[in-house]
């Protein structure tokens, strides 16, 4: 975008650091806010991680006495709430905020001040949640089933702090999502039709619609819970319906799962083509299946409630929709694999995380579909099998995509490369650690170990598998610490990245690293979803090639992209 | 940290940094609508607000069947309708305020009239709450009233925010301090206020008039 021309020195300096704290407090620049979201997410990820390591220590041996039962309840409630609302969502919103305007060729978001407001609401929400430690933290679990979350069963103010925190974070997230929608609709650079947007922008755009419809459902449920708790209302107790809470919570809660995975898919859809040296396979299908998922994500919510005892047709309808949503998800996985197929693959750290993502996410997806089979769900619900399943999707999926995105976009954000010498060992520790923690939990769940228990009897195999899980958790933790060290060191001493270290073809790589205020001095003409490719190859631009396959059985790959030795 | 060269070799035909500075200046961006960002942002916000009101209404309609208290009979639609008519009339005042926006004084006064009608509505709601509480129709009285207070309370909060914003807008407009640059703000506020009035139509019909399932 052309604004007041940016002085060359500022534009090309590798790191433009804030001079003081007030700049961070007052900034409305989407890149600063994106970085602050990422930092907030990382901070709370650390807190949530320490919480879970303590929980794993408690579970390492049968009959352990490190934590009491109530303390353990508080730990898993805080761990779940922190990881979902304060770690994963802020990090995803951070990438969305940072990258969306860059990818669509805009100067900033449509509402820069609203953007800052949304961030600070989220940050204050996090503070409010942890202020509950002064009063007695919430202990009703992250889904706070009524009537356990009602005054007679949770008499401390912890649950009220929890509800207030979630209302603030929910409002902040909703405002940011509206901002993203308006920005995408109005601020795309001239020439960038919706079907030429980079896939990350596509996913973030669709994701914002899910947020705009799902988060209000949580707000409504929380308002009702607070009317009950603070004013003695009767929505979920005293003649009201506890199942109503479950309906409203999961009407938010299941779309929330997709809110946490759509931007992750977007990151993967950017990383895989770049390191396969091919355009994404089936762009329209990857983008279009996202819309199908957005709609279906609301239609499957009651599969969290099969144990409630609905009428058979209701159960069957939600089982069917749950199986249905696996189709657009499968389309995506197929397209990523097809992009890898016959590609010229480069095993960089972001690519390694992306490939681990595909394997682990698909595994988590398959265990997820297994819950659509009612008898399996009734057998395994509330067991460690469920814990293993959703960690495979949310951690093996989303967190790995976030790490992939971190390694991929760190050069753009800071102007310096992350070290591969740290990155590769950290990758193996995280991947082996992660699978060590959760793979065995499938077995534990099938052996009957219930989730959310602070200890367990010494049944054959339980102690050994849990000990294995705990040791793996510490390997995983060390891998993450190594990644943090890598970030700190590389930020100061990493190799200078240049504008486009990965030879990627989307607009964010056309500007300097880090981008100047206002993002772009000049934009290339946009005729396809890879404007930089078109600019570098005027003799062979994307928009003059067949969009599906070329007919020679060689896939999309251009001969000149193959030239590398590996 | 890594001092060794990247594992990605340079591709000969692609320069590390593409020379975009030689390109002509492009126009700004795609502009999809003549309306302001403020208008569309508020429209999106009101969609999310609609979801909240809708879910609270569904909860009330679902639960009121099992209500075992004074329930709807305690309400006095005959009095509430007058305050409601005032609120709905305020939408008309707001339309006029926007119509006369070139005449700062007229428009400013009309904004303040709109805000005043909002405050009158709030006064009526406070009176109604006091009366109902005196009759024993409190939040915890029965399932109907839990939902009634939640819905009307949330709507009242919307009216209070809107009326305050309209009051400030009216005073600024009257003193000629609101120019065309603030079009987005007034458009958003206008849309918000009409939405708040429309929500009250639905709430009045479903809570005061309709007998329930």
From TrEMBL, chain A:
<feature type="transmembrane region" description="Helical">
    <location>
        <begin position="245"/>
        <end position="268"/>
    </location>
</feature>
<dbReference type="InterPro" id="IPR036927">
    <property type="entry name" value="Cyt_c_oxase-like_su1_sf"/>
</dbReference>
<keyword id="KW-0408">Iron</keyword>
<comment type="similarity">
    <text>Belongs to the heme-copper respiratory oxidase family.</text>
</comment>
<keyword id="KW-0249">Electron transport</keyword>
<keyword id="KW-0479">Metal-binding</keyword>
<keyword id="KW-0349">Heme</keyword>
<feature type="transmembrane region" description="Helical">
    <location>
        <begin position="464"/>
        <end position="489"/>
    </location>
</feature>
<dbReference type="InterPro" id="IPR023615">
    <property type="entry name" value="Cyt_c_Oxase_su1_BS"/>
</dbReference>
<feature type="transmembrane region" description="Helical">
    <location>
        <begin position="199"/>
        <end position="225"/>
    </location>
</feature>
<keyword id="KW-1003">Cell membrane</keyword>
<feature type="transmembrane region" description="Helical">
    <location>
        <begin position="75"/>
        <end position="102"/>
    </location>
</feature>
<feature type="transmembrane region" description="Helical">
    <location>
        <begin position="33"/>
        <end position="55"/>
    </location>
</feature>
<dbReference type="Pfam" id="PF00115">
    <property type="entry name" value="COX1"/>
</dbReference>
<feature type="transmembrane region" description="Helical">
    <location>
        <begin position="353"/>
        <end position="376"/>
    </location>
</feature>
<comment type="function">
    <text>Cytochrome c oxidase is the component of the respiratory chain that catalyzes the reduction of oxygen to water. Subunits 1-3 form the functional core of the enzyme complex. CO I is the catalytic subunit of the enzyme. Electrons originating in cytochrome c are transferred via the copper A center of subunit 2 and heme A of subunit 1 to the bimetallic center formed by heme A3 and copper B.</text>
</comment>
<dbReference type="GO" id="GO:0022904">
    <property type="term" value="P:respiratory electron transport chain"/>
</dbReference>
<comment type="pathway">
    <text>Energy metabolism; oxidative phosphorylation.</text>
</comment>
<feature type="transmembrane region" description="Helical">
    <location>
        <begin position="280"/>
        <end position="304"/>
    </location>
</feature>
<feature type="transmembrane region" description="Helical">
    <location>
        <begin position="161"/>
        <end position="187"/>
    </location>
</feature>
<feature type="region of interest" description="Disordered">
    <location>
        <begin position="531"/>
        <end position="566"/>
    </location>
</feature>
<protein>
    <recommendedName>
        <fullName>Cytochrome c oxidase subunit 1</fullName>
        <ecNumber>7.1.1.9</ecNumber>
    </recommendedName>
</protein>
<dbReference type="InterPro" id="IPR014241">
    <property type="entry name" value="Cyt_c_oxidase_su1_bac"/>
</dbReference>
<dbReference type="GO" id="GO:0015990">
    <property type="term" value="P:electron transport coupled proton transport"/>
</dbReference>
<dbReference type="InterPro" id="IPR023616">
    <property type="entry name" value="Cyt_c_oxase-like_su1_dom"/>
</dbReference>
<feature type="transmembrane region" description="Helical">
    <location>
        <begin position="422"/>
        <end position="444"/>
    </location>
</feature>
<keyword id="KW-1133">Transmembrane helix</keyword>
<dbReference type="InterPro" id="IPR000883">
    <property type="entry name" value="Cyt_C_Oxase_1"/>
</dbReference>
<keyword id="KW-0472">Membrane</keyword>
<dbReference type="GO" id="GO:0020037">
    <property type="term" value="F:heme binding"/>
</dbReference>
<dbReference type="GO" id="GO:0006119">
    <property type="term" value="P:oxidative phosphorylation"/>
</dbReference>
<keyword id="KW-1278">Translocase</keyword>
<feature type="domain" description="Cytochrome oxidase subunit I profile">
    <location>
        <begin position="24"/>
        <end position="527"/>
    </location>
</feature>
<feature type="compositionally biased region" description="Basic and acidic residues">
    <location>
        <begin position="536"/>
        <end position="566"/>
    </location>
</feature>
<keyword id="KW-0813">Transport</keyword>
<dbReference type="GO" id="GO:0004129">
    <property type="term" value="F:cytochrome-c oxidase activity"/>
</dbReference>
<keyword id="KW-0812">Transmembrane</keyword>
<keyword id="KW-0679">Respiratory chain</keyword>
<dbReference type="GO" id="GO:0005886">
    <property type="term" value="C:plasma membrane"/>
</dbReference>
<dbReference type="GO" id="GO:0046872">
    <property type="term" value="F:metal ion binding"/>
</dbReference>
<feature type="transmembrane region" description="Helical">
    <location>
        <begin position="114"/>
        <end position="133"/>
    </location>
</feature>
<feature type="transmembrane region" description="Helical">
    <location>
        <begin position="316"/>
        <end position="341"/>
    </location>
</feature>
């Amino acid at each position: 975008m052309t604004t007041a021309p940016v002085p060359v020195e500022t534009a090309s300096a590798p790191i433009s650091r804030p001079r003081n704290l007030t700049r961070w407090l007052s900034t409305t620049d989407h890149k600063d806010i994106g970085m602050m979201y990422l930092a907030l997410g990382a901070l709370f990820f650390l807190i949530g991680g320490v919480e879970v390591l303590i929980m794993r220590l408690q579970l390492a041996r049968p009959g352990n006495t490190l934590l009491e039962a109530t303390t353990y309840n508080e730990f898993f409630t805080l761990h779940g709430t922190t990881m979902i609302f304060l770690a994963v969502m802020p990090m995803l919103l951070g990438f969305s905020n940072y990258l969306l305007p860059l990818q669509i060729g805009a100067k900033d978001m449509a509402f820069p001040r609203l953007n800052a407001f949304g961030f600070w609401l989220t940050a204050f929400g996090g503070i409010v949640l942890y202020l509950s430690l002064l009063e007695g933290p919430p202990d009703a679990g992250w889904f706070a089933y009524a009537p356990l979350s009602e005054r007679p069963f949770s008499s401390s103010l912890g649950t009220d702090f929890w509800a207030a925190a979630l209302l603030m974070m929910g409002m902040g997230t909703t405002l940011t999502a509206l901002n993203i929608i308006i920005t995408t609709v109005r601020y795309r650079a001239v020439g960038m039709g919706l079907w030429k947007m980079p896939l990350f922008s596509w996913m973030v755009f669709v994701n914002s619609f899910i947020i705009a419809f799902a988060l209000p459902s949580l707000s409504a449920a929380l308002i009702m819970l607070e009317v009950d708790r603070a004013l003695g209302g009767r929505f979920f107790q005293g003649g009201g319906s506890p199942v109503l809470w479950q309906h409203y919570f999961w009407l938010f809660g299941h779309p929330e799962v997709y809110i946490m995975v759509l931007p992750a898919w977007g990151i993967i859809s950017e990383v895989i083509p770049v390191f396969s040296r091919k355009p994404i396979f089936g762009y329209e299908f990857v983008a279009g299946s996202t819309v199908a998922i957005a709609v279906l994500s609301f239609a499957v919510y009651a599969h969290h409630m099969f144990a409630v005892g609905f009428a058979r047709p209701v159960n069957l309808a939600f089982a069917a929709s749950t199986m249905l949503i696996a189709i657009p998800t499968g389309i995506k996985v197929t397209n990523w694999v097809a992009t890898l197929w016959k590609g010229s693959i480069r095993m960089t750290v972001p690519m390694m995380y992306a490939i681990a993502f595909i394997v682990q996410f698909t595994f988590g997806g398959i265990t997820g579909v297994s819950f659509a089979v009612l008898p399996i769900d009734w057998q395994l619900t509330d067991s460690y099998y469920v814990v293993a399943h959703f960690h495979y999707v949310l951690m093996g999926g989303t967190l790995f995509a976030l790490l992939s995105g971190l390694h991929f976009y760190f050069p753009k954000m800071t102007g310096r490369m992350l070290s591969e010498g740290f990155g590769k060992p950290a990758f193996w520790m995280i991947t082996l650690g992660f699978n060590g923690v959760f793979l065995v939990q499938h077995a534990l769940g099938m052996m009957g170990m219930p989730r959310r228990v602070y200890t367990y009897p010494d049944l054959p195999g339980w102690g050994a598998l849990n000990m294995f899980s705990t040791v793996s958790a510490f390997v995983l933790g060390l891998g993450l610490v190594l990644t943090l060290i890598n970030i700190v060191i590389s930020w100061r001493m990493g190799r200078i990245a240049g504008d486009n270290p990965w030879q990627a073809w989307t607009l964010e790589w056309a500007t300097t690293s880090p981008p100047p205020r206002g993002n772009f001095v000049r934009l290339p003409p946009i005729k396809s979803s890879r404007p930089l490719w078109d600019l570098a190859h005027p003799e062979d631009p994307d928009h003059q090639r067949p969009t599906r396959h070329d007919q020679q059985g060689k896939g999309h790959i251009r001969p000149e992209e193959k030239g590398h030795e590996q | 940290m890594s001092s060794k060269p990247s594992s990605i070799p340079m591709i000969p035909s692609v320069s590390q940094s593409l020379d975009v500075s030689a390109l002509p200046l492009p126009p700004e961006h795609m502009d999809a609508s003549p309306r302001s960002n403020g208008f569309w942002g508020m429209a999106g916000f009101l969609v999310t607000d609609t979801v909240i009101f809708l879910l609270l209404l569904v909860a009330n309609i679902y639960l009121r069947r099992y209500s075992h208290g004074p329930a709807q009979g305690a309400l006095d639609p005959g009095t509430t309708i007058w305050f409601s008519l005032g609120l709905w009339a305020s939408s008309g005042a707001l339309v006029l305020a926007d119509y006369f926006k070139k005449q700062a004084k007229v428009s400013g006064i009309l904004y303040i009239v709109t805000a005043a009608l909002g405050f009158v509505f709030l006064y009526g709601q406070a009176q109604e709450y006091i009366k109902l509480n005196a009759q024993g129709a409190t939040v915890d009285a029965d399932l109907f009233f839990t939902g009634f207070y939640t819905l009307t309370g949330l709507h009242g909060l919307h009216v209070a925010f809107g009326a305050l914003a309209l009051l400030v807008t009216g005073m600024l407009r009257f003193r000629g301090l609101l120019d065309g640059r603030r079009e987005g703000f007034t458009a958003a506020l206008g849309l918000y206020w009409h939405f708040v009035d429309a929500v009250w139509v639905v709430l009045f019909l479903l809570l005061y008039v309709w007998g329930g399932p």
